[in-house]
Design a protein that fits this description.
27% helix; Trypsin Inhibitor V, Chain A; alpha/beta
């Protein structure tokens, strides 16, 4: 074997050894990863524990720690009130433990927000150290616009469990409704005139090349004829080019 052949043989052996070592290392790494991810742990009871301690416990067990909400309770402020999954459950490492933390006992009385504007209600909640919860809008015939008509919890509540106050806000009378006319076959100008007479207007017009269709006539409409619409509904027409 010449020197060159021997050098090439040694190089091939070195490359083979490198590949084998690399494959072995990756296999071991993957095995360790699957072992860690597949490992199950039993959840301890976090109720009453301070947030910092509970978080440290979870991280030490390879679990995540997520605060989902904060509520008023007899527990000291910052301690765990509830947890999910519950104590004793077995979960895989890497999963999250969801907790609700205590704000301590309620120290404010729920203010009266009804008959106030939405903006005024938000400001009052902020001043009281409370938060806006779910806000729902409703049309009220003959009712005022942008006014709180109902709240939950009720004004004066002193035993609320959550700092969130839900509001029902009036949007005033419902908008006038119309029945969508038949516009297909009409000229664009005639279709616009019908819509304007009903308090409606076209939001989008699309041109289309349709053989046999007279130029400038409506060939499709959305919404269709007979559908109930109001001024807020976008109306689209397709017109023959």
């Amino acid at each position: 074997m010449t020197f060159r052949e021997r050098a090439q043989w040694l190089l091939r052996q070195a490359m083979l050894l490198f590949v084998l070592v690399s494959v072995g290392f990756l296999s071991a790494l993957i095995a360790v990863r699957y072992t860690i991810q597949g490992r199950e742990v039993k959840l301890p009871d976090l109720t009453g524990k301070p947030e910092a301690q509970a978080r440290q416990w979870m991280e030490g067990m390879g679990l995540g720690f997520r605060v989902e909400d904060r509520i008023y309770s007899a527990q000291p402020a910052g301690s765990v009130v509830r947890q999910s999954p519950p104590p004793g459950s077995r979960v895989k490492a890497g999963e999250n433990e969801h907790v609700v933390l205590s704000l301590g006992p309620q120290k404010v009385t729920i203010p009266a927000l009804e008959n106030k504007s939405e903006r005024a209600a938000r400001i009052e909640l902020l001043r009281s150290g409370l938060q806006l919860g779910q806000e729902t809008s409703i049309y009220l015939p003959g009712g005022p616009e942008d006014m709180v008509v109902e709240q939950d919890p009720q004004p004066g509540t002193a035993n609320a469990t959550s700092p969130h106050v839900n509001l029902l806000v009036s949007e005033g009378p419902p908008p006038a409704a119309y029945v969508m006319p038949e516009l297909v076959g009409e000229s664009v100008s005639a279709a616009n005139a019908q819509l304007l007479a009903a308090g409606l207007k076209v939001s989008k017009t699309t041109l289309a090349n349709v053989p046999g269709a007279p130029h400038g006539t409506v060939i499709e409409q959305s919404p269709g004829r007979g559908q109930r619409v109001d001024a807020s509904v976008p109306i689209e027409l397709q017109v023959a080019d």
